[in-house]
Amino acid sequence: MNGIIRLCCSVVVLLASLSSVAKELPVESFSQLPSNTRPNLSPNGSKIAYISNFLSPEIAVLTTFDLTTGKKQYVVQSDNEEIKVNWFTWANEKTLIVSLRFASKRGRTDVTETRLLAIDIDGEKPVQRPLIKPRTGIYGNQHISQFQDDVISFLPNEPDYILIALDLEVANLPDVYKLNINTGNKSRISRGKMSVRDWMADRQGNLRLGEALNYKTGEASIRVRIGDDDTWHKMFEYNALEESGINPLGFAKDPNILYYSQYKGDKKALYKIDLTSKESELVFEDENYDVDGSLIYSRKTNDVIGIYHSHNDDGRVYWDDSRIKFQNALNKALPESDVYLVDFSRDENIYLLYTENDFTPGRYFLGDRKNSSLTPILSQYPNLVPEVLTEHKFVTYTARDGTELEGYLTLPLGAEGPVATILHPHGGPGAREYDGFDYWTSFFANRGYAVFRPNFRGSTGYGYEFAQSQMKGWGLTMQDDLTDAANWLVAQNIALKDKMCIVGASYGGYAAAMAAVKTPDLFKCAISFAGVTDLKKLVSTSRRYLNSKFVKKQIGDDSADLKSRSPAYHADKVKIPMLFIHGEDDRVVDIVQSEIMVEELEDLDKDVEFIELENGDHYLSIQRNRHATFKAMDAFLKKHLN
Predict the structure, then answer these.
(1) Are β-strands 450-455 and 404-410 bridged in parallel, bridged antiparallel, or unpaired?
(2) How far is Cα 641 from Cα 483, in angstroms, rounded to an integer?
(3) Quick one: DSSP state of residue 589?
(4) What is the per-residue pLDDT for 134?
(5) CA dist., res. 335 & res. 314, Å (int)
(6) Phi, psi (deg, nearest 5) at residue 508
């Protein structure tokens, strides 16, 4: 479909009016897990699988729906307490492959593990079966792979088989197996070797590439098979501890064309290389931003047609004329929304579309190109309506050293003059902020607060030097960028000087705690969700994991320096009320990171609150914990900012 789209039902996007004050919605309207999310089409487009989050009881259910017969099946149910659905996709028309994740321990080390299921949905009831069984390793010990969901290829010509990487014999050195999803039988097609940690297949399902990494020395290489040659040729070599290296993204339909990203000067760009001639070609670059997204493939042609790029209007860059025309037609049909194509049937006649904007939560549509129809099927936040939400404004501000920084400013409806404001640094710190709907920001704005989300130094997407600011830089320039953002908000008559709070999660939680000790008079209060407070302990704990040298490279290894940049060691400088919230089963940032600073503050008789979330992870996956977190933040902010 390249022409006008006929909507099967009227879709009206209501613009928020800045002339009226928003109605304060119940906390649960924002803290509710998305009602429906992650839809996935079956190969012929006749079925859809998606996650539904139910409120009573509080469970997440992997659901399938037959678009032809109307049959709905509840395939996997989880309370998100112990086991969570990690990802899922269709292997063929009757079978879903589902990855489950859960928190675990290996010895004294906290880890996350995954398991893989095949689920048949062609009968009266879904039939589940685990695909990987434990086995004895070559050293005579029973070794159970920590990660059992590393699918390398859903073999295009063999719908009953997949290629999967598993370290069944030597830990962290995966072999590659061809696995029958009906019987669980598998045969090894390549033994783990050459320090390869990740394998890649071409579009025909042939094993073609291995990414090797020595965690002790940092030595890394990309090895490829060329044509029918069984030899693994070393194409790229670098030291991952010292150099940026390359990132292989995938093969073209031509199995000898490999796409990869690499820095071109200071910005990451997209390249492709002919493996036979060794000739590389620049495919796409952006002078101002990194090109760091994944490839876009056509289901119909099996070839690369574009790349995800957040700084393009559609979040994608296409070089296929038919897809460009199709995207333009959709943009014209839904002019008030950001429109994203998320999935296609194999013939690309049936498709899934996701739409949102700053003040309209995400909604999914089912499209039929033959009938030129577009039908809304799933909404994420049905209790949120555009009338009470507001848009995000892209702004720039200048740091103290003259560097221009970007961010997104959200003003509450009806704001006139300076208002109480929240500085909301992102996590990572190797991440960044975008426009579009954000449930944290929308919640704060609905409460009457201005919200500023800066892309401070250390954020990704702005080039190599910008991102490298996080290397041994926590608490330094990247923290000063947040201080400068707060002062800029006051200077611009946006924020009330004595009514600013800093609220962050993960690295943002560290930044909030660090702000309380580095600039104790700047903010009225601080909230840290799942944040780091003791860098010395973070580095020490990393010794249990393979990437410990990389953690030291990022955070630092000098004890005195780490303590100077750790808010927990400077609790005596805190003058403002603080709220810490942390999940007890957080496998990204251990809960002890919050407990350490809370204990220090309590010993000093400081104004501090601490909420421990039962079974909580790093992502607020459990509904009651998300409600509890937002209710606690709501009460805390009203107490200290109103």
Answers:
(1) antiparallel
(2) 18
(3) S
(4) 66
(5) 12
(6) -60, -30
Straight-line distance from the first to the last Cα atom of the chain, in angstroms, rounded to the nearest whole number: 53
Q: Which structure tokens are listed for 370? A: 């033959």
Closest CA to 213 of 259, 248, 182, 249: 248
According to DSSP, the residues that pair with 49 across neighbouring strands are 40, 64
For the chain, how are helix, strand and coil distributed in percent, rounded to 5?
20, 40, 45
Tokens of 296: 């876009």
CB 633 within 8 A of CB 602: no
Using alpha carbons, list the distances in angstroms from residue 9 to 159, 523, 580. Answer: 36, 48, 46
Query: How far is residue 413's CA from residue 407's CA, in Å, rounded to a whole number?
Result: 19
The reported pTM is: 0.92
CA distance 253 to 85: 31
pLDDT (0 to 100) of residue 382:
86
CA–CA distance, 574 with 86 (Å, rounded to integer): 39
Side chain identity at residue 340, one-letter code:
Y
Residue 355: which of 377, 333, 340 has the closest Cα?
340
Positions of E strands within 486-590: 495-505, 525-529, 578-583
Contact between 372 and 366 (Cβ < 8 Å): no
H or E segment at 303?
Answer: none
Strands ordered across the beta sheet of 304-308: 295-297, 304-308, 316-318
Total residue count of the chain as it appears in this document = 642
What is the structure's pLDDT at 106?
Answer: 84
Flag residues of the chain having pLDDT under 70: 1-22, 134-142
Separation between Cα atoms, residue 527 and residue 530, nearest integer Å: 10
CA distances 359 to 255, 332, 354, Å, are: 43, 19, 15
Q: How far apart are CA 349 and CA 345, in angstroms?
A: 6
State the sign of the Cα–Cα–Cα–Cα dihedral 298, 304, 306, 308: positive
- Residue 294 neighbours by CB distance under 10 Å: 12
Q: Token digits for 369?
A: 């190109």
Q: Are strands 207-213 and 219-224 parallel, antiparallel or unpaired?
A: antiparallel
Distance CA 547, CA 240 (A): 11
- Neighbouring CB atoms inside 10 A of 194's CB total 13
Q: How far apart are CA 298 and CA 246, in angstroms?
A: 24
- pLDDT at residue 548, rounded to an integer: 85
- Pair type for strands 246-251 and 257-264: antiparallel
- Cα–Cα distance, 54 to 35 (Å, whole number): 7
